[in-house]
Specification:
By secondary structure, the chain is mainly beta. The strands form 2 sheets. A 4-stranded antiparallel sheet has the order 1-2-3-4, with no helix packed on it. It has a 3-stranded antiparallel sheet with strand order 5-6-7, with no helix packed on it. It is globular, with a radius of gyration of 13 Å. This is N-acetylneuraminate epimerase.
Length: about 90
């Protein structure tokens, strides 16, 4: 089994991900706000922006076509949210 670490990134806990067109979209996790994509075909990571709201950890991440939704999660220890955010993935 191979493991690919994100260059310059700290370990993320409770992050969520989805796969689309051979790319793994990694969202939130801990205090991280960078939106990351791992391109399996190129074996490369890229940061494509930042989460535009408080990035919860442990949330659900749902992919529906070109739309991605972040549902619930923990903003900080003991503080949970029932919010849902969504956005269009730009490829």
């Amino acid at each position: 089994m191979l493991s690919y670490c994100v260059p310059g990134e700290e370990t993320r806990t409770q992050c969520v991900s989805q796969v689309l067109d051979g790319r793994i979209y990694v969202f939130s996790g801990g205090d991280a706000v960078a939106l990351l994509i791992f391109n399996a075909l190129e074996n490369a990571w890229s940061a494509v922006g930042e989460v535009p709201f408080e990035a919860p950890c442990g949330e659900g991440l749902v992919l529906n076509g070109d739309y991605i939704y972040s549902i619930n999660g923990e903003i900080k220890p003991g503080t949970r949210t029932c919010r849902m955010y969504g956005g269009l993935l730009v490829r």
